[in-house]
Amino acid sequence: MKRIGGNVEAVIQTRTVLTDGIGEQSETWTLAKKVKGFLDYAGGQGNIRNYGTKLEESSYIFICDYTDLGVDARNSRMVINGKVYEVLEIDNPMEMNEHLEIQLKYLGVA
Q: I need a labelling partner for 41 at 20 to 30 A (CA). Which of 8, 30, 59, 83 fits?
């Protein structure tokens, strides 16, 4: 199997929401996995259409070798070079288990 490798290390985090005794919630982010890959700019502001599918404001894509991330995209974020990205979708193209394409939305600096 050909490996993608990469020039950027990304930290994938998952969100945990804790509720205290009086019902107040606090949010924490914990390390799920570290992956190495390539970060690419996918387009400008607004929505992007990819093969007829509308991706909500996806502005970046992270491509890496296939690995079981063990995370739910709806509850995850990535930190890359001190910048935070919301994970919109994690795609394993054609279920071939060769690489992952992770659609991201830039949120700001960590």
A: 30
Does residue 91 lie in a domain region?
yes
- Residue owning tokens 């992956």: 35
Domain containing 42 equals 8-109
Pick from 29, 46, 37: nearest CA to 6: 37
Is 95 a member of any domain? Answer: yes
CA distance 54 to 69: 24
> Which pTM was predicted?
0.80
State both tokens at 109: 């600096």
Token pair 């400008």 is at which residue? Answer: 44
End-to-end CA distance of the chain, in Å?
35
In this structure, how many other beta carbons lie within 10 angstroms of the beta carbon of residue 101?
A: 16
pLDDT digits (tens, 9 = 90+) for 59-110: 899 999 999 998 888 899 999 999 999 999 999 999 999 999 999 999 998 7
